[in-house]
Write a structure and sequence with these properties.
alpha/beta, globular
């Protein structure tokens, strides 16, 4: 079986990357012979959907496929054939990172049919996981409506593939806060959360990976 971890952070050893790595360990605990590949989106020069609608043209030779030729296209063609994909992104201004948004456009739109049932042209029902990391605590994130946006993204992912399993990692510790203008956040409180909550988040990421592997087996 084939699985992909998609990192929407430019930090290859940051919070998002660590949670993705733990999720992959969870996959391996269920599928020991699984083939796994990590993709760091910031390493790839690519853009989001150009809205050319070639993937929607009736009887067109690119119907249901992205026609956009760039460095990302061959990678995307492998990803859409996977048994499971885990998307990980930091939250910037209440949304996933720009590169993750570009990925979602290219990942979803070719398979989206504008009919009453929002029919999917995806080649298979792959298992989907979503990991979100953010500076804000859970209460503030909910007050600002972060989850409403995440739910909208996941609704479309569910229509195209399967219902995503998600993990929210709140109040993350990023760097030495004394070096930056960050009065909104307290170093001591961030470190406390890092020591008490982040290990739990890592455990939950492992469990998410297990569920992705089990879900992939059910759709195999």
């Amino acid at each position: 079986m084939k699985f992909f971890a998609i990192n929407g952070s430019h930090r290859k050893d940051g919070n998002t990357a660590q949670l993705l790595e733990k999720a992959l360990e969870g996959i391996h605990s269920v599928c020991s012979d699984a083939e796994i590949e990590s993709v760091n989106l910031y390493d790839i020069p690519f853009n989001g959907c150009k809205s050319c609608f070639a993937c929607k043209k009736i009887n067109g030779r690119h119907y249901g496929k992205c026609v956009y030729k760039d460095d990302f296209k061959p990678i995307l063609e492998k990803i859409v054939q996977a048994d499971g994909v885990i998307l990980g992104s930091p939250v910037y201004f209440g949304d996933v990172s720009g590169v993750m948004r570009c990925f979602l456009e290219r990942f979803i739109f070719p398979f989206f049919v504008y009919d009453e049932d929002m029919t999917s042209l995806a080649p298979k029902k792959m298992a989907i996981g979503c990991i979100y990391t953010m500076n804000l605590d859970e209460e503030t994130a909910r007050q600002l409506g972060y989850h409403d946006l995440f739910d909208k993204n996941e609704f479309v992912l569910e229509k195209m593939f399967t219902k995503p399993i998600h993990l929210y990692s709140y109040d993350t510790y990023q760097f030495d806060y004394s070096k930056y203008k960050m009065e909104l956040f307290t170093e001591d409180e961030k470190l406390k959360t890092r020591k008490t909550q982040f290990p739990i988040d890592l455990e939950n990421a492992f469990k998410l990976g297990e569920k992705i592997a089990i879900g992939a087996k059910q759709h195999d």
